[in-house]
Amino acid sequence: MAQLDAFSALLDYPMYVVTAETGGERAGCLVGFASQCSIRPPRFAVWLSTANRTFRVARGATHLAVHLLHREQGEVARLFGGETGDEIDKFERITWRPGPGGAPVLPGTCAWFVGRVHSRIDGGDHVAFLLDPVEASPPAPGRPPLVMFSDVAGLSPGHPA
Questions:
Q1: I want to staple 128 with a disulfide (CB 3.0 to 4.6 A). Which of 66, 70, 91, 121 is the partner?
Q2: pLDDT at 159
Q3: Where in this chain does the record put each Flavin reductase like domain (predicted)?
Q4: Residue 87: its pLDDT value, please?
């Protein structure tokens, strides 16, 4: 629908790196569709493309980790948004540690949290993972500049179209 495209073209939202682990298999991708969606109880939803390897791993995951990147972390955004885990191990190229449920946590990011997967909602070519937060990074000082959609708009996705 052209009207929605025109509406969406005006938006500039934060980008997130979402990571998952299932049976020793790790995956992660750059995500733009995500938001806090409840205050009580606190909940956050991330939408993963069904074409993405991270979606295939996340389907079996009990927890996902959601990370905000500092604007200076463009290299991390390009790694998780422009490469596919079908071809490379992204986690060999970045510092990480296992979090709750095995979800890979990237401690060098601005902020992160790990959420237990409460439910999944089919939205078409993306599936929402509704998360109950169980662990989070310490608060970032101030309000650091984040990687936004406009910073990665020209990035070609690593997964197949």
A1: 121
A2: 61
A3: 8-155
A4: 84
- CB 33, CB 46: distance < 8 Å: yes
Q: Which residues contact 3 (CB under 8 A, 6 or more apart)?
A: none
For residue 161, the model assigns a pLDDT of: 54
Give the whole-angstrom CA distance, residue 91 versus residue 72. 19
CB 33 within 8 A of CB 47: yes
Considering only CA atoms, which of 103, 126, 115 is closest in space to residue 51? 126
Amino acid at 104: P
CB-neighbour burial class of residue 134 (10 A; exposed 0-12, middle 13-18, buried 19+): middle
pLDDT in tens, 55-85: 999 999 999 999 999 999 999 999 999 888 8
Separation of alpha carbons 155 and 149, rounded Å: 10
* Domain assignments of the chain as residue spans, ordered by start: 14-152
The per-residue b/e assignment along 68-89, b for 16 or more CB within 10 angstroms, e otherwise, is bbbeebeebbbbbbebbbeeee
Residue 156 has pLDDT above 70, yes or no: yes
* Residue 22, amino acid: T
- Half-sphere CA count of 159, side-chain side, radius 13 A: 17
